[in-house]
From TrEMBL:
This is Metal-dependent hydrolase. Belongs to the metallo-dependent hydrolases superfamily. SUPFAM superfamilies: Metallo-dependent hydrolases (SSF51556). Residues 12-285 form the Amidohydrolase-related domain.
């Protein structure tokens, strides 16, 4: 195996979660999720980060609630390796969102907002007028928006958001979950290319293992990563483990190793950007 990137450059896991079932309600997290249906917190992740040589992480919301955001910010205050938090405000209630962002933005660890779009019954939730107004408020604070774009319902809306809120920096989570298991490229590829045409749109090389075949390897995810690099460039792509969801199809170490294998052959600069540099600049870490 080729040498891993120069350790002097920051390595950032731009997408991981924690949840405490005693402190916050997560209705989506049911016993069907097996091994991750339990409280999972920072002490469990810490040794995995050390083993991978990670310098920092971004905790991403796991519920559309203030309780979850407050819990993440509290966790971030206790662990130096948490570099940022992507929280939640009610984007469809712009006035309330503005008041909460006034409060949250005072915390330097609060970097952006996400909403569990895929849990909404309406697949077009994110492009309704009230949400567009909420996203304009978010952009006004200079904060970022993580787009949960579970293919095929949401990725197609990214160009609309980019047109309507041009000063909002967005990142598509998990490359919008392409159909890796079925080895399908289209229509995902065309929609990702359309989103990549907007320079304020970024994407995360994350969550691919849970969209891949059971015995997945770098060979399964590489065509999708290569396609994303070809259209976004490495300076608009960032690595994320999606831990602990990653444990449903492997573990932290496997995701890290196979992603690195999939990046072999790329230039040092490209690899360093994806494994840390892009996250630092996008989230202002």
């Amino acid at each position: 195996m080729e040498a891993l990137p120069d350790q002097s450059k920051p390595r950032i896991d731009a997408h991981q979660h924690f949840w405490n079932l005693d402190k916050v309600a997560y209705p989506w997290l049911t016993p069907d999720f097996g091994t991750i249906y339990r409280t999972i917190e920072a002490p469990e992740l810490e040794p995995l980060l050390q083993a991978a040589g990670m310098d920092g992480t971004v905790i991403v919301q796991a519920m559309n609630s203030y309780e979850d955001t407050d819990y993440m910010l509290h966790t971030a205050s206790r662990y130096e390796w948490v570099a940022g938090v992507v929280g939640w405000v009610p984007l469809d209630r712009p006035e309330e969102a503005a008041k909460k962002l006034e409060q949250y933005s005072r915390n330097p660890l609060f970097k952006g907002v996400r909403h569990l779009i895929h849990e909404e019954k309406d697949p077009d939730w994110v492009v309704q007028d009230s949400v567009i107004e909420g996203l304009k408020v978010l952009a006004g604070f200079g904060l970022t928006f993580d787009v949960v774009a579970v293919f095929p319902d949401h990725l197609k809306h990214v160009p609309t958001l980019a047109e309507k809120v041009p000063d909002l920096r967005m990142v598509i989570d998990h490359l919008a979950k392409p159909r890796i298991k079925e080895r399908q490229m289209e229509p995902w590829a065309g929609q990702l290319k359309a989103a990549a045409a907007y320079p304020q749109v970024y994407a995360k090389v994350s969550g691919l293992n849970t969209a891949a075949p059971d015995n997945w390897s770098a060979a399964d995810i590489k065509p999708y990563i290569d396609y994303a690099i070809n259209h976004f460039g490495a300076d608009r792509l960032m690595f994320g483990s999606d831990w602990p969801v990653a444990n449903l199809a492997g573990d932290y170490g496997r995701v890290w190793l196979e992603t690195n294998k999939a990046l072999q052959g790329r230039s040092q600069g490209e690899i360093e950007a994806i494994l840390g540099g892009t996250a630092v600049s996008f989230y202002n870490l």
